[in-house]
Design goal:
By secondary structure, the chain is of the alpha+beta class. The chain has 8 helices and 9 strands. It starts with a helix and ends with a helix. About 30% of the residues are buried.
């Protein structure tokens, strides 16, 4: 029978890209101390990457050698694992919508859970706890617009909203406006004006 590290490596190889591997999900293979030790050994050998204490992912083998899994797939898998909403940060949202040409240097995500930091080899991923209003419509353009506007802040909200109005469909704009009840007052006023114009 193969040793515990080999069993864990085989288990990890069958998982989709970015799937988190945690000790408490491997207790059917051995006791906690043995599993923790095997995970550490696999990480030292480069067969697993340690994201944070007790959470690992497997690197992806390519013809150029191993690479870390994509940040988006890791973050999506962690959101499902932890039962949280995790979305890209406001700077990235503003960049996608063309409100800024600056490409964020740091990987910043907003989460409904606690703030924490992950490390994916040399890349640091920052998860910042965000208020509920910044996490609305997590997979929709309206949600992207909310996070971009939050990043721009009260002084630039009207100019940002003008640019967003040209980029979003009428349906997406209606969805954005529909969340007004939970937005801060500095965002409600220009959105109300937008709804009146529409």
């Amino acid at each position: 029978m193969p040793g515990l590290p080999s069993q864990i490596a085989e288990h990890a190889a069958a998982l989709p890209e970015g799937t988190p591997i945690r000790a408490n999900g491997l207790l059917h293979l051995g006791n906690r101390a043995a599993v923790d030790q095997a995970l550490s050994r696999l990480a030292r050998r480069g067969l697993l990457l340690r994201l944070r204490r007790g959470v690992y992912v497997r690197p992806i083998e390519t013809r150029f050698g191993p690479r870390p899994p994509g940040v988006e797939s890791v973050v999506a898998a962690l959101a499902a694992l932890w039962g949280e909403t995790i979305v890209s940060g406001g700077g990235a949202a503003a960049n996608v919508l063309g409100l800024t040409t600056q490409v964020p240097v740091r990987s910043v995500y907003l989460t409904s859970g606690p703030s924490r930091t992950l490390q994916l080899q040399a890349q640091i991923i920052h998860l910042h706890h965000a208020p509920r209003w910044q996490l609305v419509s997590p997979t929709r353009p309206a949600g992207l617009a909310v996070r971009a506007l939050a990043w721009l802040g009260p002084r630039s909200v009207e100019a940002g909203l003008d640019a967003i109005e040209r980029r979003l469909s009428a349906e997406d704009l209606n969805e954005l406006v529909s969340h007004r009840a939970i937005f801060p007052s500095w965002l409600v006023k220009p959105l109300t004006a937008l709804a009146t114009r529409g």
